[in-house]
Amino acid sequence: MTSALTCLQFALIDIKSAEDKVWFRGYGPDRYVYYARKGPKKFLGGTFQTENYQDLQRAAKLPGASSILELSDSPGGGSIVSLTDPEGFPVNVMYGQTPAEVGKPPEKLILNFEAEKPCLRTFQRFEPGPAAVHKQ
After folding, report:
1. Which end of the chain, N or C, is more open, meaning fewer C-beta atoms within 10 Å of its C-beta?
2. Residue 25 forms beta bridges with which residues?
3. If you average pLDDT over residues 23-51, what whole number do you get?
């Protein structure tokens, strides 16, 4: 897990770590955008946010779905239901996570186009480092 975390820390912010779990976030309103836990190497599934609790309850009634679980140890809390898609991949549905305070976004770049040259006689200087991560 240590080698995987070294790679992830390049552009993500470590917001919570436990002995065998870690959560990373970007600069957006999501409490975390990547979750890893120690164990056999496998994909833990994509997670989608519902707009209301009723959608989460509906997901829990689907064949093979887990019951609604409280995310008490995860940053932002909330509730989650786990499913398996027709190809056998895990899919999670989440609701009720408290949004994080949005961090500083990267500076917007001004670009030149064929007929429009707003950058004429100006330079854009970049700060060395990892790209900012944002999940929409």
Report:
1. C
2. 13
3. 89
